[in-house]
Amino acid sequence: MLASVLAAVSGLALAEPAPLPVAPTAAVPAAAAPAAAPVDAVAAPAPAQGVMSYPPSYFTDVGPSTALEMVQRLPGFTFDRGAAVRGLSGSGGNVLIDGEPPVSKNDTLEEVLRRIPVSSIVRIDVIRGGAPGVDMQGRTVIANVIRKSSSGGKGAATWTTWPLADGRVLNGLRGEGEWRWGKRLLEASFVLGKGPNDQAGDGDRLRLDAAGQPLIRSNIDWDAQGERRWLMGAYETPLAGGRLRLNGAIMGNDSSGEYYDHIVYPGVWREYQYSTDARLQGELGARFNRRMGANQIDLVAFQQWNNTDSYVRFESPGLNRLFTNTKDVSETVGRFNFRRTASPALNLEAGIEGALNTLDSATSLRINGAPLALPAANVQVEEKRGEIFGVAAWRASPTLAFEFGLRQEFSTVTSSGDVVLEKSLAFTKPRATVTWSAMTDLQVRGRVEREVTQLNFDDFVANNSVAQTGAVIAGNPDLSPMQAWVGELAVERRFLKRGSAIVTVRRYELKDVIDRAPVYFGNLVADAPANIGDGWRNEIQFSLSSPLDGLGLPLSMLKAQITLRETEVTDPTTGTPRQISAIVIFGPPPAIQAVRESEWELRYTQDLPKLRSTWGFDIIGPYIDRYFRASEIETQKVETWMIVYGEWKWRPDLSFRVEVQAPLARDVARVRDVWSGPRNTAPFNYQDYRNLQYDGGIQFRLRKTFG
C-alpha cells in the first residue's frame, strides 16, 4: 500500500519537479565520442551525424545548478532514470557520464546527476541513433554528460520545508560536494528528510450490494509519509594505464501510515490499519576501463543488498489481521566488455555478464489470532544468470546508421522452503536498429528486437494486500520471464532551433505474460502471479518540445507527451479476452510498469533573466490502473495533478524556490468489484468505492552552492 511513499519521500530528494524545459540559445553540433577520463576543451571536435552538443552557455538564461537540471532542459529529450531490474544490462537510464553508465542502482541516475555541478561540465551531447565509441545501452536516443578535469572543490547544501494542508510540516536536508585534484576525483552526498504519500488523504467510502443497495457508508482519514536517510560517495583515480571508479551507498527508506475508517451506516464502528515498511539498502560498485589505441576494455563489479521488514495491522469489531514479512535480497554481478573501433564507420563490442541473486523471505498472517497458511510464505530462492553478447554499429553513410546485436541468456532458478523446485532457462535475444537522417531536421528510427523481462522477486512471495482488502495475493517462484518480439518506428522533426516533435509507434507480440491467476487451497481462493499465456500490446506516443516566443512568451518552453495503449490477454479465470493487469510490462528498457490505456503530461516554464527568476507549471493527466483477480476486479483512478513553482536566484550561489502542489487538490479513487467466489462461476457480491482527496501543500527550498 505504501510503495508509492518510497517514490515521494524527502522534500529535498524530490524537491525538483520532473523535466523543466527552458529556452536556451543555440545548439552546437559536435562529435560524441566519450572520454575515458574527463576533458576540458569546450570547443567540440568535428561534427558527427546524429549528435547535438549543448555547452553550459546554452543554458545561461536560466542558470541551472546541476547536470540533472541541464538534462531535464534538453530540447527533444525526455529523461529516463532507468529500471530496477537485476543485472546491469537494461538497468541504466538514458544518460551516460563521460561515456559510461554509473555502476549503481539504489543510488539512482537522478541522484548521480544531482551531484554534478554545472561548473564541472564541458557539454552534454544528445546522440540519436548512435555515434563512434558510444554504448547506447539498447536505446535509440541517449545523452552523454562530459565533465572537466580541472582541480578544485564544489558543493551545495539545500534545506526544504514542506507544510501540508493536513497540518503536518515535513523537513529535509541534503548536501553534495566533489573535490578534484590532478586526475583524481572524490564525490560525496547525503539526504535526510521526510515527504508525504500523495495518494493518501481523507474521503468517503460506499459499499453497494448486487442490487445497488448500500451495505456500508463511512468516512476515511488516512495519513502516510516516508523518510530517507542516505549517504553516497564515489572515488576515481588513474590505474594501470586506465581509470578506476569506486562508488558506494547506504540508504535507509522507511514509510508508515495510519488508516481510520469511521463507519456511519448500518451502525457506528471504526476500522483501523497501521502499516510500516522499514528498508535498508546498500551497494558497492567498481568500474575499470582502459583504452589501447582503437580498443577499450571495461571491467565492472557490483554488489547490493536490500533488507525489508513489513508490518500491517488491521483492527475492526470481530475481525483482526496481522501481516508481517521479512525479506532479504542480494545481488552480485560481474561484467566484461571489449570494444573496438574497427573504422570510423564501424564499432564492435562483445562481452559477458554473470550474476548471482538470492532471496530469503518469511511471511506470516494471523486472522483473529489464528495463523493462516499462505502459499510460498517462506521461501529461499537463488538465481544464477549468465549472458554473452555482441554488438556491431555501422554508419553506412552520413545519413544512415545501423546497429545489430545478439545476446544469449542462460539462468538457473532454485527454490527451497515452502516451494521446492529447480529449473533452467535460456533465451536468444537478437536486436536490429536503423537510423535515417532524411533531412537536417528530420530523423526516422526503427527497431526490431526480442525482449525478455527479468523475474521479479516480489512475485515469489505473499503480498500484504491480504491485510488491506482481505484478498490473498500468494507468491509463486515457478515463473518464466515474459518475452516479446517488438517492432518500433519513431519519426522526429526538429523546428525553430529549439523545438522537437516525435511520434513513436510500438507493437509487442507477447509470450508467457505474467499476470494474476487463481490458486485454490482449502476453502480459500487466492491469487498468485502466473504465466497465463500469450498476448499483445500496441502503443503510440506523441512528444512535443516547443518554444513559445512567437506567441509573445519570450524564453518559454512547452513540453507535452501523450501515450495511448491497448493490450489483450486471455483471462485465466473466465477464459475471455481482457486487458493486461497493471503489473509487469515492457519498457523500454524492460521494467515493472502499470499498463495504462492513456497517460499525458504538460510542462511549461518561462525564464525571466531581468528578475533572475524562473516560473512554470507541471500538469500530470489522470490515469487508471486495473487489476484482475480470481474473485474481484480492482480499479484505481488518479485524477489530474498540478504543480506551480517559481525560483528566484538571489545571488549566483543562492536560490529560493516556492512550489505549490495540487492547487486544485487531487482525487484518488479505488473501486473493488467483488464476487463471492471465482468470477466465472460465483454470483456478484458487492462493489466497494473509496474516494480520497490529497490536498497537497506548499514547499519552500533554499539552496546554497560553494566553489
Structure, described:
The chain has about 700 residues and is mostly beta strands. It has one domain (about 185-705): Maltoporin, Chain A. The chain has a 22-stranded antiparallel beta barrel. It is globular, with a radius of gyration of 26 Å. The two termini are about 45 Å apart. Residues about 1-45 and about 585-595 have low confidence and may be disordered.
Question: What layout of secondary structure does this protein have?
Answer:
Blueprint: E1 28-29, E2 51-54, H1 67-72, E3 95-97, H2 109-114, E4 121-128, E5 141-147, E6 152-163, E7 169-181, E8 184-196, E9 202-209, E10 214-239, E11 242-265, E12 269-292, E13 295-316, E14 319-343, E15 346-367, E16 370-371, E17 378-397, E18 400-417, E19 421-439, E20 442-452, H3 465-469, E21 483-495, E22 499-511, E23 514-521, E24 524-531, E25 535-547, E26 556-570, E27 577-578, E28 584-585, E29 591-592, E30 598-608, E31 613-620, E32 623-628, E33 632-638, E34 641-651, E35 654-661, E36 666-675, E37 684-694, E38 698-706
Parallel strand pairs: 3-5
Antiparallel strand pairs: 1-2, 2-4, 4-5, 6-7, 6-38, 7-8, 8-10, 9-10, 9-37, 10-11, 11-12, 12-13, 13-14, 14-15, 15-16, 15-17, 17-18, 18-19, 19-20, 20-21, 21-22, 22-25, 23-24, 25-26, 26-27, 26-30, 28-29, 30-31, 31-34, 32-33, 33-36, 34-35, 35-38, 36-37
